[in-house]
Specification:
The chain is of the alpha/beta class. It has a domain at 2-224: Amidase signature (AS) enzymes, CATH 3.90.1300.10. 38% of the residues lie in helices and 14% in strands. The chain contains 15 helices and eleven strands. It has an eleven-stranded mixed sheet, sandwiched between helices. It is globular and about 70 Å long. Bound molecules: glutamine. Glutamine is lined by residues 101-104, 127, 146-151, 179, 286, 398.
Length: 447
């Protein structure tokens, strides 16, 4: 009841596309009865959690914030959401995002932008912007988002909350509407590390419905939050020298590094000369994957069909032209181009090779260092509308976050103070694959 009231009172933030009020209250009653009857309770008993509108949920609408899925209801529940339900969490509703998770501001939603609760004239980041705001504004305790190139970490940074992108393959993608399948990761937003760790532990792990998901054991992350060893930490010279980096973010990052040194940890500057190749590699490969993933939205099987279609070709053309927004169309066109017969080798194959190099270099760095630290974003939350007409500017927002997705490693964004306008600053920590336990413990120590 408390959270439903908060949602109602803060409707202007435009966080929820659906609120499952009756259902959530019924679930709460059911949980109370379970407790009264002394029955065993789940690991997430009573946790009130929201889910990004790209995670399917049986008999509930899901739209990826797109017109093309208008009216579509899923016939099944995806693995991550199913596991939350099985552990007695209460799903409170579906949360706004950029259409098909493409964007960095939640402005690319058919359902209008979500507002940052710290300053309503600013974006919350994206694409999981509403999932970040829901935690920031106290509309639920935690939420599930997705991170293909930064969509959990960047909004977490803009909203001053904790957001993790786990190792690629750590969480099943079954029931996650695909954007770029070799990058997509389900991640968690929360107010603190312990909640985050407890939720990831539940959603992570092997699943027979996703052939790419890992069989690696899932540790009890929250039981391993203590550590007392001296660490080797790297920071990347090129990130702190980046021209686009807001000075207050640079200072906040440097002061954390200084503090770590004063605590006796080894902190070294390293160089990552291929940093400039991260964004092009990311945008070539993700648009390629998106163009094929989104070919299934054809007016036949899901959601929207243009009413004036009169044959199969006009049905495809009109439904897709009217159903997809501008950014999604841009990505489909880019992706189709890089996959076209005459350009395939020059772009797609080349980008795959560069991806391998970037991964090997990143993993080599992590063989030497426990963690890499950098800012999550080059700026704090920007004004609504300010990057709208300039997609290239918007893509630069992802400069520090895409490395983890291109290379598959886990990364977390934690709050690291505020700038002079009182806007949250995020600090990003990256580590080697499947070291989420260490990542959480270190993040908890830093907060
Ligand atoms: N902002 C990035 C993009 O637009 C990341 C999106 C994401 O992680 N889903 O592609």
């Amino acid at each position: 009841e408390h959270y439903l009231k908060q949602i109602e009172e803060q409707k202007h933030l435009n966080v929820f596309l659906d609120v499952y009020d009756t259902e959530a209250l019924a679930k709460a009653d059911e949980l109370q009865e379970k407790l009264d009857a002394g029955q065993p309770i789940g690991k997430l008993f009573g946790l009130v959690i929201g889910i990004k509108d790209v995670l399917v949920h049986q008999n509930h609408e899901v739209r990826s914030a797109s017109k093309i899925l208008e009216g579509f209801e899923s016939q099944f529940t995806g693995t991550a959401v199913q596991r939350l339900i099985e552990e007695d969490a209460i799903i409170i509703g579906a949360q706004n995002c950029d259409e098909f998770a493409m964007g960095s501001s939640t402005e690319n939603s058919t359902y209008g932008p979500t507002l940052n609760a710290a300053d309503n004239s600013r974006v919350p980041g994206g694409s999981s912007g509403a999932s970040a705001v829901s935690v920031q504004a106290g509309l639920c305790m935690a939420s599930l988002g997705t991170d293909t190139g930064g969509s959990v970490r960047q909004p977490a940074a803009f909203c001053g909350v904790v957001g993790i992108k786990p190792t690629y393959s750590r969480v099943s993608r079954y029931g996650l509407i695909a954007f770029a399948s070799s990058f997509d990761c389900i991640g968690v937003f929360s107010n603190n590390i312990e909640d985050n760790a407890r939720i990831l532990e539940v959603v992570a792990g092997h699943d027979e419905y996703d052939s790419t998901v890992s069989r690696e054991d899932v540790p009890v992350y929250a039981d391993n939050l203590q550590f007392n060893k001296k660490l080797k930490i790297a920071y990347v010279k090129e990130t702190l020298e980046n021209e686009a980096l807001q000075s207050e973010i640079k200072e906040a990052t440097l002061s954390k590094l200084e503090w770590l040194k004063s605590e006796g940890h080894q902190v070294n500057e390293v160089t990552f000369p291929h940093l400039d190749y991260l964004l092009p590699t990311y945008y070539i490969l993700t648009t390629a994957e998106a163009s094929t993933n989104l070919s299934r939205f054809d007016g036949v099987r899901y959601g929207y069909r243009a009413p004036e279609a009169h044959n199969i070709e006009s049905m495809y053309k009109l439904s897709r032209s009217q159903g997809f927004g501008e950014e999604v169309k841009r990505r489909i066109m880019l992706g189709t181009f890089v996959l076209s017969a005459s350009y395939f080798d020059a772009y797609y194959t080349k980008a795959q090779k560069v991806r391998r190099i970037l991964r090997d270099e990143t993993r080599a760095m992590l063989a030497e260092y426990d963690f890499i630290i950098m800012p999550t974003t080059p700026t704090t939350a920007f004004q609504l509308g300010s990057n709208r007409d300039n997609p290239a500017e918007m893509y630069l927002e992802d400069i520090f976050t895409v490395q983890a997705n291109v290379t598959g490693i886990p990364a977390i964004s934690i709050p690291n103070g505020t700038d002079t306008q009182n806007l949250p600053i995020g600090l990003q920590i990256m580590t080697d694959i499947f070291k989420e336990s260490e990542l959480y413990a270190f993040a908890d120590y830093l907060i």
